[in-house]
Every structure is written in C-alpha cells, then in structure tokens.
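Give me structure tokens for this 95-residue protein.
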Amino acid sequence: MVKMVTFAFGYFYSAHEPGTAKDADFWFLIQGCTTQLFSLVVAGLILRQEKRASKLIWGTPTGIALISTILAIPLYLMVPTEWSAFLVMVGARKR
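Here you go.
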C-alpha cells in the first residue's frame, strides 16, 4: 500500500520526461537495481535447492522480477522516468 501511495506522489511530481545518464537518479537507479538483482539471484538459488517448491511457483515471480529490474535501467533513458520507477517497484514486490 505504501509503495502505491509513494508511487502516486512520485508520478504526480515527475517531469514526465526521459532521464539522462547525467542524472544522479540514473546512477542511484543502477545502484538499487544491482543490489536487487543480486538479492533475486541469491533467493532464486536458495529456492532452487528446495525440493518441495515447484519451479513454476517460485520461478515465475522471480523471472518477472529479474526482467522488470533489468528493463528499468534502459527505460529510464527512453521513456518518462516514472515508468522505470514502476518497474523497479514491480521487481521489488514481496514474493
């Protein structure tokens, strides 16, 4: 719930323009996405060892999170920056 409220405020106050690689926020985005990717890989490796959990049950959300986290970086440069923030939020949702 808090994520949706803060995203709404961020969207409202956003410039609605693509960012550039010279924005400080772009580099903070890379920092956050890198941390998130490492966390997803570690969680995926741990879940992969679990024999009781179906790969479909944990693999699908983890795959979606990985893809959305990776896509957030180039999207920051191509579309309005709020959509990059949305993808990071999707990738960070609790599994």
